[in-house]
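hiii, so i know i said id send this last week but things got crazy w the move. better late than never?? heres the sequnce for the chain we talked about at the cafe, plus the structure i predicted for it. fair warning i was half asleep when i ran it
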Amino acid sequence: MKKMISLLFISSLSLVGCTTTDTTICDPTNKNLGILDKMSCNFSGHYQERVDQKTQILIDEKATNSQFKALYAEIEKQKNDSSANVKQKQADLNRLQKNLTQLTDELKQKAIGRDDLQQQIKDIDQQLNTVKNSSSSEIEKQVELDSLNNKLKKLQKALSL
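okay and structure toks below
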């Protein structure tokens, strides 16, 4: 009979524990909980709620992380495209400078004996060297070189090349 009463007492305590367990108490890191409290947290579903909440947080963080990775990949792609574009523009600028130098040298040879044209070619050559050695932006250099190219074409027409 005493065993029956003690078993009934323990059962009622565990049921009371199940109904009065607070979710803040059911923290798995809480080492001050007794065995009955832990059983109560387990049977009441508070531990599973916590696992579900943490799982949802993990899923959300993974989704955010994948969005950041996609954004980072897009930024890297744009950076690489920009770098390739800058290199292409630099190559075009170098090619234009080389062509202008060759045209200037050709015009110097053709303008021998014509002092007015030689002076103009000399001025253009100085401007070309100034552009090459300047620290201005690539766009500004491109505009200046295009202007010099137009001047050289006019001189070329004057010499009937």
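btw The chain has two domains: 1-44, 45-158. thought thatd interest u
miss u guys!!
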